[in-house]
Amino acid sequence: MPSAFTPVKVAKAAAGLKLYDTASHTTSVFTPIKPGEVGIYVCGATVQSSPHIGHIRAAVAFDIVRRWFLKLGYKVTFVRNVTDIDDKILDKAAAAGQQWWARAYYYEREFTHAYETLGVLPPTVEPRATGHMSDMIDLIERIIANGHGYVVTDADGKPTGNVYFDVASWPHYGELTHQKQTAEVDEAAAVADRMGPSVDAAGDDKYNPVDPADASPDKHDPRDFALWKAPKDTDPEDARWNTPFGVGRPGWHIECSAMSHRYLKDGFDIHGGGLDLRFPHHENEMAQTRAAGYDSAARWMHSAWVTAKGEKMSKSLGTGLSVPSVLAEHSAWVVRYALGSVQYRSMLEWSDQALVEAQAAYDRIANFIERAGVALGGQPARDEIEAVSADDLPADFTAAMNDDVNVSGATAAIFTAIRSGNTLLSKLADHADSDEARAEVRASLVAVRAMLDTLGLDPLAEPWVSAGAAGGAGDGADESPEHVALEKLIGEQLAARAEARKAKDFAKADAIRDALAGAGIAIEDGPQGSTWSLK
Question: What is the pairing mode between strands 299-303 and 270-274?
Fold first, then answer.
């Protein structure tokens, strides 16, 4: 990763970036708190069981947001937490005869593998809740000292371990999710409000069941929520922490306030997460952070749900589709493309047709990249693709990404460039392979791959190359369509190199070899011809 002393050069295009804010229900120009830097906190997984595509859709959505900031030239600090202790983890571990921490770590590794397989960049830091108990305790003490929290005591006046946030003491409660009358209709938020509770219409949320601690008769107000809670009788001894307000463990919301402040300090640019976390999780998080005396996020962004026949996919409702089951039938590239095919705020309907369309997109993309590489005698190196600034990308792509990360518009720009590139390729022979014509094809190829790379989809980048172009499906990865396509792509370049050597055009032969080497492909010449392997 770049050091803290790496100079930041923000693209001119950054001035045009507009992002939606859940709290204000408006889209506005993004201005970083610190020039040249962006701090992002995204709620990560509760590692109770295997990841499903709803989890990964949120990860892919914010990965694309992060990649656009990087392409704009910002230094990005990206924090994604791991909730490794909660009721579900404890209960499921007990039912399976497991140590709760062993179960959490096992599934944390599954999530990490899913992120890596689908090309999600690793976070700058990935803190675990269990590693930040002192931070949470300190934060709760500040909230109590400021008059916005209270400790429940027993008949003898001793603390029970239950601590609640006093909602009535905080007049700003509800500013994140309260529906405001604006000219812009936030349909995704309206759907979430209809399907779950809000500060105006409290009730059961089938996606986020009420924490038993939040149903306690000890609360002063029904809206109050647990900052810290006494252990259940079934909780193991190593899932309890001693605090000034009694033995217990954290409430659901406090960890994110503590960890975002720990790593991004007082006030940061963006807080992200799935749409179902707006209430109660993010509403409560915003309130307790500010009640502790700290600034909360300047902007809140929420990715919409993955739906099946209009209903949110949910593991708790038995409608979640596991990532391993999807990857058993489709390449990782295709799954990522499908998950990131619409703007992050749009509901994503998951279907076989969506995956068919993603595979067709890959075929069109791979065909152009292959043909252009063969015509040029090699591919531009990855370093060159990564170095393309947002200011040098096609204007329609940049405009779409600056429009609240409108991936649909950005994808349309990619296919417009591919159509133009294919036209240039068809005319290349008419130019008698002139330097001018080759330069046009090369510029088109670089632009297409740079746009794809911004979305994490350049087929000649990791992890796609190591996994067989676009990531093999199932156990037969080596025989996947993507591997076959890569074999054909490289094979044709090796054939062109062989013809060049036969014609004693060693400059062209060396250029093909160097281009392949730049893409991470090693060539070995032997008596039976040339063979290739991934470095």
Answer: parallel
